[in-house]
TrEMBL record:
GO terms for molecular function: metal ion binding; N-acetylglucosamine-6-phosphate deacetylase activity. It is an enzyme of class 3 (hydrolase). InterPro entries: Amidohydro-rel (IPR006680), GlcNAc_6-P_deAcase (IPR003764), Metal-dep_hydrolase_composite (IPR011059), Metal_Hydrolase (IPR032466). This is N-acetylglucosamine-6-phosphate deacetylase. Keywords: Carbohydrate metabolism, Hydrolase, Metal-binding. The keyword Transferase does not apply. Its cofactor is a divalent metal cation. Its EC number is 3.5.1.25. It comes from Nocardia macrotermitis. Residues 56-371 form the Amidohydrolase-related domain.
Amino acid sequence: MNREPQTRLRGRIVAASNTFDDGVVTFRGERIVAVESFASWTAAHPDLAPPPFAGTLIPGLVDIHNHGGFGHRFDTTDPGEARGAAEYHLRNGTTTVLAGIVTAAPEDMVAQTATLSGLAADGVIAGVHAEGPFLSEMRCGAQDPRYLLDPDPVLIDRLLAAADGRLRVMTLAPERPGFAAAAAQLAANGVVVALGHSDAGYREFREALSPKGFGTLVTHLANGMPPLHHRTPGPVAAALVAAAHGDAVVELIGDGVHVDVGFGALAFATARGSVALITDAMQAAGLPDGEYRLGPQAVRVRDGVARVASGSIAGGTSTLLDCVRWAVRECGVALPDAVRAATATPAAAAGLDDVGDLRPGCNADILILDEDMGLRRTLRRGR
């Protein structure tokens, strides 16, 4: 019998499985054991003093596309460096993060993956998101074009071996020769196939997504893609149609820089339950303007916007809680929908169990927010 004491938090509960204006979350050790209305809790515990109302309780945030922060990078072979990035985002409410690596020399990507696999084994991160190198030259954005390749089954095998089961997501462009075989190879090994950095037409992109294709995730919708146009709808329309039908989840960088407020509102209105807010954060997140790096390339941050020498935006400088606030305050998204987009939806899209929700059996990853969505407290696994 587990004799650890129970801890109770009371507040407005906003989560995918449970929503209460006044509710109680009970956890023991690292796991949630009960979520109920305050009235139900009071009836079941008449002899206990009621816990104080703490604020708004939401699940710990889940960022499935993140390259670093506060001077630290995930595209590294230094475990301390990557740990520092994870710790920065944890301090800001992200209790689960996939560490993102970008296009680089194959040897570097393999070495970085091996380093990150060790941190995933230790529970510091939830796994790896490999963004590249099988991407479009036309839509490479801040990916270094020198290292872009057609899908290579040998390199995929090397990355899979280095990850040791912890490569969660890989982003590919569906128009590259060898895509279909690569997608099948990744899916067979439990890796989520994400489509992005693509110049494909509507039909090719849509058919690479479920149910015909292996793709179930779209990397940073509208960024690294041709613009949406009524005669050439391209990947953006294909992604939104797939998301509206429940065939795919679309990532949306909610930092107010990568996409306009109107586009954010459009994405939620089209596919409310299939939007995953992400930061695409890089080394400069949480720091002043200056000179930084993303993969092999130098990045300059001015007025909070990161760009490589070509002028392409090079990742974000916000936290995921910033993105939730942007969705609510700027895009007019209801708080429960914004919270789901930063918790349950990305967790499900990346195949992450026991996170992203407040229900019995989940990790006790809980944020306490004030009335202005300011962060009062972060608990990760009950601590």
